[in-house]
Specification:
Blueprint lengths: L6 E6 L10 H5 L5 E3 L4 E3 L21 E6 L6 H5 L39 E10 L8 E7 L12 E5 L13 E4 L13 E7 L2 E4 L2 E4 L1 H7 L6 E8 L13 E6 L3 H13 L7 E7 L8 H8 L4 E6 L10 H7 L1 H8 L5 E6 L3 H15 L4 H10 L3 E5 L1
Helix pairs in contact: 6-8
Bound molecules: adenosine-2'-5'-diphosphate.
Amino acid sequence: MSTHDDVIVQHLIDPELCIRCNTCEETCPSNAISNDLRNYVVDVDICNGCQACVSPCPTGAINSWRPVLRQSAYTREQQFAWSALPEAPSDPALDAVPPGRGRGDGSVVVENRFTPARPALARVVENRCVTPRADAAVHHIVLDVSNDDFPFLEGQSVGVLARGVDAQGARHAMRLYSVACSRDGEEGVAGRLALTVKRVIENRGGEEARGICSNYLCDLTPGDAVELAGPYGADFLMPDDTTAPLIMICTGTGVAPMRAMLDRSRALPAPRAPQQLFYGGRTPQEMAYFDALQAAYGATCDIGFALSRQAGESKRYVQDLLRERHDVLAQLLARENTHVYLCGLRGMEAGVFEALAQVCERHGLNWQALEAAMTQQRRLHVETY
Ligand code: A2P
């Protein structure tokens, strides 16, 4: 029998949830993560459990922890061979160790209830284009997920499993989409989940290349069945504290989780603390919910748009809008319970953080210290791709 000292909580990556986006390998400060083009794995001899990789992971695959006997820790080679996490080893010494780690604040968030191997079955209720320009189509898709009791929160994502197989005969890879409505359901109907999906059609060297999952979703009609995995993620959630101001910054379909949060806030019995939305896109014709946002949430949120390709106007990015609205932004950043959400293009991160630093400097705040405190207090939420 082993003593408790022989037990470690080994950091693993769930191959069933991992979408091989490489974010963890890029993020890990100690180079403990590697891949063999099939699986991403954590080297138990190098990983120091700092968890820097946990919140950037879009699926939560990285947030897998197993108590194991030190001498039987899974090697990299073993992990490379996995298609799923193995059954937890049975040893009485392991019983005292909790099987998972995660948010650390004691709250319970349902994650990973359904997997690609055991998906939930949803039905399409509605599928409509929410951008006036057809060649930049973004669809608002409402699914009925009540049959399989698929729970979701604003800020979580769901995995969509497109029908069909790829050229090698393997099932298409799962794709993640942010929940775009309140946990109470689209239009307040329980069990109705909304997604915001951009139909991806690219020109690759003169050839038209269509995104498999986005086109699958945008072509669905009411009544169609869709397989879902998840829900995923616990790092982009709304604070329970309704006095906490929300600063939401997004580009493109990064607006989806912001819509979900606005939807949730609007339904609260008492008004929520100030909410600011900074939304960047090309033109109003190419931006999902452009008019609908103001109509639905304008009373509870201050909404600003930054247009990058509007004819006759100079290019504006969301970070330009942040600089323009420095007064209100600084006031909110100075409050000790403000949450900042950033969702959309990964490329905007640097510009947005630079703008926040400039706003802080202008108002006598120290962004570096603020960013560190917000990160530590889980008030800074970043989901970029
Ligand atoms: P651009 O016109 O330069 O492409 P979409 O998803 O519809 O493409 O919208 C993304 C929006 O984000 C566009 O307005 C795009 O502008 C803008 N964008 C591109 N790069 C950055 C960046 N580095 N920082 C902020 N916004 C960006």
